[in-house]
Amino acid sequence: MASPVMVNSKNAAPSPDDVASITQQIYGSKTSQESLDASYTLTDMLLNSVGFRGLNGYGILATIQKSAVDKKSAGKREGAMFALGAIFERFPPKQKLSEIVFLLQETDLLPTALDALADKQSAVKEGARYALDTLFASLSAEAKVFGLLPVLQSYLKRTVGKWQGVLGAIELIGRMADKAKMGLESAEVEKDKDILREAMGKRLEALIPLIENGMHDLKTEVSKQSIKSMNSLTTLIQNEDVIPKIPIVVKSIEDPSAEAQRKAIHALSQTTFVAVVNSPVLALLTPILERSLNTSTTSQEVIRQTVIVVENLTKLVHDPMEARTFLPKLRPGVQRVYEAASLPEVREIGQRALDVMLKAMGEQQNGDSQTTEAIQPVRGEEVLAVLEKKIQENGGLLNYPGDSDVWALAKNYISEIVAEDANQRAPERVKQNTAAYLSPLMEDGKGDAVGDAMEQYYIDEDQRKFGKPVTIDDGETEIVNANFSLGYGGMLLLRHTNMRLLKGHRYGLCGRNGSGKSTLMRSIANGKLEGFPPQDQVRTCFVEHNQGEDADLTILEYCLKDPDLPTEDHDRVVRVLEEVGFTSGPEGRQAQPVGSLSGGWKMKLALARAMIMNADVFLLDEPTNHLDVGNVKWLQEYLKSHTEISSLIVSHDSGFLDEVCTDIYNYESKKLVHYKGNLSELVKVKPEAKAYYTLSATQQSFKFPPPGILTGVKSNTRRILAMTDCTFTYPGAAKPNLMNVSASLSLSSRVAIIGPNGAGKSTLIKVLTGEVIPQQGKVEKHPNLRIGYIKQHALEHVEQHLEKTPN
Length: 807
Prior knowledge:
Rossmann fold; about 800 residues; six-stranded mixed sheet; alpha/beta; ATP hydrolysis activity; ATP binding; P-loop_NTPase; three-stranded antiparallel sheet; 32 helices; repeat
């Protein structure tokens, strides 16, 4: 055998005899350790001389494949796995072009290792496991998706093969998905996970059927691993609407019975979809929806629910390319419902769904295509054109024997990887994914030059499409620029995100219920958010109702004794309270006890406390709760007029956010994404944000217990609760909260109590329920009447039972 050509190395190419000598040690050693050591010796020798060219130049890979199937010698089979493992472990980190050789060029190499998992000798199986594990660990996120994953898919599509190999391939796919799970590791590691998660998610359409076949395998081990891997694959889906329904959907895949399908469709039909629907969601849900539409025994009710789900999902598919990939599978079934459903209501729903599908796919009813302004993704062939141009500008490729065969495979491989990085808006990864592959094929330094040029090209392209990064505006003062992650219990809320606050700006904090908005603000207020400036640098104040424990103090005493407030003179505190609306003097509101305040006035007291603190940042959590229209207007004007104070605001009052916000931070995929403008401006670019502020956005549903029958009362109009000429004054208050009030209620009463803050609305209810006793007048109620009462401060009920455990 002739020596392969030695290039780009100070060390001479090893002779065939040198290689043969080490190869003999690999396959003829008496112990496993000697064989492994020889494998490392051979790998290092190649890396220090001829590199990837030696793998085929010396026939090393051919020898591995031949030895791996040598039925007469377990030692040779074990040695083959050790040699393979050493190559997998040490080549990719130092010479990434080797991936092309053993994943794309020698397509039988990885299947050989998978087949070895079925070997009768445990040492061979352990060697195969070592080879597969080292390969998985040594590949980058992109290489796992574009190199390893296609080989595993091809292996699972084979009609012949041993179940242990199938099990190993399915386990690797599941492990790949697990590797993409969000965590709190370094920013670099988390970025790798982001790339892997996004890239794998786009391939769920092909992966789910393969794993589904394994779920129904007769071999118990394969079936169990397939179910585990399917659950791992579903973690790639980041749609918050679908995530709670994933277990029941996976169950319907595992058990394809009509009953399991009915339950899954019913659960989906009860879901309010607000988040954008992308290919991972469609890949999971399209098969079950298609099966429901195409099964002749599906009931009309399930058909109706299925079509509703299709319509609701389709409305949120913003990418016509994704729509054209998945919706044609559902279109014939929906068309049949529209044309042949027995119930007119179902036919009408079918027509509506069909119209939405055609619009999503960019088609009119007459079949004409609609134009779309969506940003088109970068394609591999586009990258290849740019790559070949940059290579030629830097001297072209070397032309050693065999290089052209490798480059024929490598150019498309590199182009697809770069396209993925560009589409995920990670142009900073382009250099490492081009230079590392090109360097062995070009003169010294030229590979890096091409990498730099490619990276700059896609940075420029990214800025052309999406705009340049936001910079500090002229005259603006930055008071916070923090990078942090945030968790609550075992739940990850924000991951490696950034928050930047400018002085005088008012930021709305937006996201679906349960995303962690209030948790973020409380963490800032408590000084527990990593990276956020401490209180001695940026003073923050969490504006909330927290005056319950000081209910007996007067408002002025409460402000003067607050340990969190700076030492202030009496007169300034009085002035600030007057500015907010608390009149001074013995007869004024400042002399009233804190416990007598309504919810709206308690919020104003919290705002006064923040003003006395001279806070740099107000943290406002639902500030308009319990405020009447006049006080909401006052709060809006106050925040807008104090341009020296920054605010971070959580509110479900969309009008309030529109009025006061200068910027919005929106929760997106565990990140805070900044948008200039108010909530209306956000909705223009993120239409799904509108649903955050509707009743359907809530994740909880409240069900009140049935009231039962009131014994002795047969008429719904008979008086069962009444108060007559009642007057009530809180202890220490200068004037009554209620004066000569009368009211009467029956079973048919549906009464709303309205009025400005402090008018006595809550006090009226307290008098009716018997929580407080009026000084004048009387309260009457039916002896069998039971009253359910939920206060504004809902936890007050819990605080009355602190001796009890939650369960």
